[in-house]
Write a structure and sequence with these properties.
This protein has 477 residues and is of the alpha/beta class. The chain has helices at 6-40, 64-78, 95-101, 109-129, 147-151, 186-200, 215-233, 286-296, 308-311, 444-447, and strands spanning 44-45, 54-59, 82-89, 137-142, 204-208, 243-247, 279-283, 317-322, 326-329, 333-337, 350-358, 363-371, 379-387, 395-401, 409-413, 424-429, 432-439, 449-458, 461-474. α2 (64-78) packs across α8 (286-296) and α6 (186-200) packs across α7 (215-233).
Length: 477
């Protein structure tokens, strides 16, 4: 038998060694995740949805509902729960899918709209295969990669529409939306969410995690949390008792290991598993995990055969974190620490921690730690505080902070025009911003709560979220 030449033998040995090292790294990574989880522990095991329970699953893009909640939906339908799924966007900005799935060149608006229609059909088909009626699948049709822009006050009102750079539309071009030809603005997002919420009156809402590093994902969490609070302000009884759960899709090295194997466990990242975390696991049977895998593979536009992320989600369980309301005393300080999860390729400003105090004189004091230490010229930090009104929403104070000196703020009250708000921002030391006397939105003390988001950015690219969510006040007058 003829022997291989030495160079081929050496190449074979290198390939074997590389394969063994790769397998070892996967095993070590997964074991590290398990050790961290075992040390922190889950807060508990989630019971399967009960018969008649009203459940709403909210997803930013078609396929997120299957990746995060495919097993939950199966169990809920099998047990006779009333399940609805809501899609915020049609995923019409996925360049990878346009190039490799549709075999079209990217950046042609007509192709992006065509992709959005295809992804809408994929999502509807996948959910109907799991047993959902067609009228339990709701589409809003807002712009992919544009939800943070709609959250910001610059594109909140109907007079301030956002135009998608992918489809070139400032309204939804899709049929079957909750609002036909829905204009691209935050006010419309809130209105459509309230319409679906009031129809479903959910007892449990499953939405993308507020720490998810994809801007559309954490913006979805912010919009849904704000809509639920708005419904409560307007007197909806269900909104006062609804349970909110977050499911995670995008985080560095999650899921670990990045393998397609339904026998593995889905474990939360160590960075999000500190003592304050409230993660729960929902066990899936082997049959449910396999059916979830088959369902994920039906999203053909995303080329799941080649997407290691998509195929890593069908496992023996699903995980959800309970999303609480934060309570703070007037004059007290609360501290949020943000695990580092900067999105690749963007750079810019990352918010590492936020210290926040609400004072009796209706002002906010904040200390914000950032990375990198020196804020680049095109980077900024956004601190957004908003509250509610029974007839109009929201009342917003937003401050865009740069490195030094006074910075303009945007204050928006219902239909009133934006105007500057006096607030001092000092760079007391490199990597730290101190905000003094930022006015609370009018009506905050009457409502006794606000909704706060804080994030870093470079130009229009959000780099990492520091979503804080709903904050209730205690004490004071």
């Amino acid at each position: 038998m003829r022997r291989w030449p030495r160079w081929r033998q050496a190449l074979f040995v290198v390939a074997v060694v590389a394969g063994l090292l790769s397998a070892y790294s996967y095993a070590v990574s997964y074991q590290a995740w398990q050790r961290t989880l075992r040390a922190a522990g889950f807060a508990g095991e989630m019971a399967p949805p009960a018969k008649g329970e009203r459940i709403l699953v909210v997803a930013p893009h078609p396929d997120d509902e299957a990746l995060g909640c495919g097993g939950l939906i199966q169990q809920a339908v099998a047990n006779g729960a009333d399940v609805h799924v809501l899609l915020m966007t049609n995923g019409d900005a996925s360049q990878f899918a346009v190039v490799f799935g549709e075999r079209e060149m990217p950046w042609i608006p007509a192709n992006m709209v065509s992709l959005g229609k295809k992804r809408q059909d994929e999502s509807r088909g996948a959910m109907m295969k799991l047993g959902l009626p067609r009228d339990h699948i709701h589409f809003l049709g807002f712009p992919n990669n544009g939800l943070v822009a709609l959250w910001r006050p610059e594109h909140w009102l109907h007079s301030q529409l956002y135009r998608s750079p992918y489809t070139h539309f400032d309204h939804s071009p899709y049929a079957g939306d909750v609002t036909q030809d829905a204009p691209y603005c935050g006010e419309q997002v809130l209105s459509d969410l309230l319409a679906v919420l009031q129809q479903v009156r959910p007892e449990s809402i499953f939405v993308t995690h507020p720490r998810d590093v994809h801007p559309d994902h954490w913006a979805t969490s912010a919009f849904v949390g704000y809509a639920v609070a708005t419904a409560a302000v307007r007197g909806a009884d269900w909104a006062k008792t609804v349970r909110m759960w977050g499911y995670l899709i995008h985080w560095p090295n999650f899921p670990a290991p990045r393998r397609s194997k339904t026998a593995l466990e889905l474990l939360p990242p160590p960075e999000l598993s500190d003592e304050s975390a409230q993660w729960y696991r929902l066990p899936l049977t082997p049959e449910q995990a396999k059916r979830k895998m088959a369902d994920v593979r039906t999203y053909s536009s995303q080329e799941p055969r080649f997407d290691r992320l998509m195929l890593a989600f069908p496992r023996r369980d699903e995980i959800f974190e309970a999303l609480p309301v934060t309570t703070i005393g007037i004059g007290d300080t609360i501290h949020w620490r943000t695990p580092s999860a900067k999105r690749r390729g963007f750079g810019g400003v990352e918010v590492k921690s936020v210290r926040l105090r609400m004072d009796k004189d209706l002002t906010v004091q904040a200390e914000i730690e950032t990375a990198p230490k020196k804020i680049p010229s095109q980077g900024y930090v956004c601190l957004d505080v908003r509250t509610w009104d029974e007839k109009r929403a929201p009342v917003i104070t937003t401050l865009y902070m740069r490195a030094k000196g006074e910075s303009p703020a945007v204050r928006l009250e219902g239909e009133a025009p934006a105007r500057p708000v006096p607030a001092k921002v000092d760079e007391t030391q490199r990597g730290s911003l101190a905000v003094t006397r930022l006015p609370l939105p009018s009506g905050s003390m009457a409502r006794r709560e606000v909704f706060v988001t804080c994030f870093g950015s470079v130009k229009d690219k959000v780099t990492a979220p520091a979503v804080i969510g709903r904050v209730r006040f205690e004490g004071g007058k």
